[in-house]
Amino acid sequence: MKIFFSIFITALILLSQLPIVSQTALAAPSAPYVVNYSGSNNLSTSSDSTVVPGSTGVASQKFVVSGSGWNGAFYTDWGTHDVSNYNTLDFWVKGGAGGEALSINVSDGTNGYSANIQTPSDASWKHVSIDFSAMTGVDFTKWNTITFTCNTSAVNTTFYINNVEFSYVDHYTGPQVTVVPWNGAQSAVSLTFDDGYDSQLDYAVPALDAKGMKATFYITETAITGSRVDDWKKLPLAGHEIGNHSKHHYEPSANPSQPYQRTFNDTLGYDETVAAQTEIAQALNTTVVSYAYPYTNNDPYLVKYLKDTHISARGGWGNGTYYMKSSDTPDWMNISSQFTWSGGSFNTHYKSWIDNAISQRAWTVISAHHVGDADLPLDQFNLLVNYLDTNRSSIWIAPYGTVSGYWRAQKIIEGLTPNATSTGTSYTWNVPAYFPNNINLKVKLKNGDGYQVLQNGQVIQPDTGGNYTISFGAKSLELKRKPYAVNYSNSNNLTVSTDATVVPGNTGVVSQKYVYSGSGWNGAFYTNDWAAHDVSAYNTLDFWVKGGAGGEVFSMYVSDGTNGYSTTIQTPSNASWQHVSINLASMTGVDFTKWKTITFTSVTNPATFYINNVQFSRT
């Protein structure tokens, strides 16, 4: 903190010498507000002419960790600026080797927003775009600084930043879906077990099954060729995940000095990833979608084959935090995890892991090896399981592959552009080949009053919390304006009763049965309170009708209270239900911003007829 304060005071003294923000906040939103690099701590900096996708021609800044302690790069002129007429902060980032862990802090001088960022594992450029609405608490009328911190603290760790700017994005304002983080829970916890030890089958599985909890077991070739292969086969059937922990559990090494060490190449990289995945899946008759690095070593030859065959890979320090927020941008091939160990205990360590995940609304991955020995004594394991069970209302307890698959699918959905249609909005997406078919997401509607969610033509009903469960494997989603139901009001010279006959396309509303046996004018009125209603957002009036004997003739009149439209309708001769759909544009003269009534009148006398599902819709 003292170091930061000294830097800040120095910056104030040298303010006139520092680079300045190149554009004022009064600029039109169509022109980005570019923020320039200012200063840094424990970083060697230089400009770099590397061209990035979408580059403005501005040279990037190259940062190399040069010392221990806090490593921060400041983008600011140290003044207060009003950037509230923009709505997005975006920039480009890449690492020197790939997979570097960074964090960003955006501050107004009093309050700030932080997020974790991991550079792509292949050392390519990544474009990061953060909406102001996600940066809760920051007053953008008083924006002050943007700080990038390198959490990978090894000396000579290198990363690059380019095109830091505020911009205005003309966001879509129609109905859209937003994914609910962590399957609707406040946080998420995944229990994982490495190496396929018998103690996991003997102690961990029974304890988990007793609480209805599901975990991930990362195994090697030893488990599928050993004497307990049948026990391992039972785990997927009980809802647990089997993960890939390589074929031989080798540790990558440039200069091997131990029997378990190897220098990796393409052949060995393939064998320890894809070949191992295939063998485990076939031996245990299950889908294998996630990987755990032996010794947490994400060697490039492993990443090369994992990125197109596995949803994600579990490492060690990963993206720079053990508590991953849903807004973070992770490296899917190096997700963080924290390990139990000899000397660790529930009260001094493991309980806080759970508490931190809940308080930070984050996902944490807990990894263990032996269960029931010094690595994880049985009493400590039981305390951990019981504490998770006690906090189930705040935690989504699920296998690693389930949570990472949900999170990765969430990122894909959040990156989509909604497509406006005549009936509402649609989304389409691609599902990577290595995704399982059973990933479901919970979503909410934004600006969705009056709309319903459909997949494959089927309406999805919300749960009590207003969440809709959608299938990621369906590859599409439709938000369609709900029909505007018109209710029966009263009638004249008709005997009226309800009829529970089910009609095709029935919404669950019972039909009305009308019997005409008198003389004079007879009418059945459909109106929502006899007042004027604006139904101009719809384009169709539709309903279902049938006659008691078949062939009955009646007329329909649609009115705005001043002008009306009339037509004649005949029921099917075989007394079946008929769907009638009339385009509003054909009902000339009616002002549908002031619609009032629909009247059905029997021409046939005597007659029995039925009406159901009278509604305005958007087709």
From TrEMBL:
Q: Which CDD domains match?
A: CE4_GLA_like_6s
Q: Which UniProt keywords apply?
A: Signal
Q: Which InterPro entries match?
A: CBM30, Galactose-bd-like_sf, Glyco_hydro/deAcase_b/a-brl, NODB_dom, Polysacch_Deacetylase
**What's an example of a GO molecular-function annotation for this chain?**
hydrolase activity, acting on carbon-nitrogen (but not peptide) bonds
Q: Which Pfam families match?
A: CBM30, Polysacc_deac_1
Signal peptide start and end residues: 1-27
Q: Where is the NodB homology domain?
A: 187-398
The processes (GO biological process) annotated in the record are: carbohydrate metabolic process
Q: Which PANTHER family match?
A: CHITOOLIGOSACCHARIDE DEACETYLASE, PTHR34216
What is the protein named?
A: Carbohydrate binding protein with CBM11 domain
Q: Which organism is it from?
A: Paenibacillus prosopidis
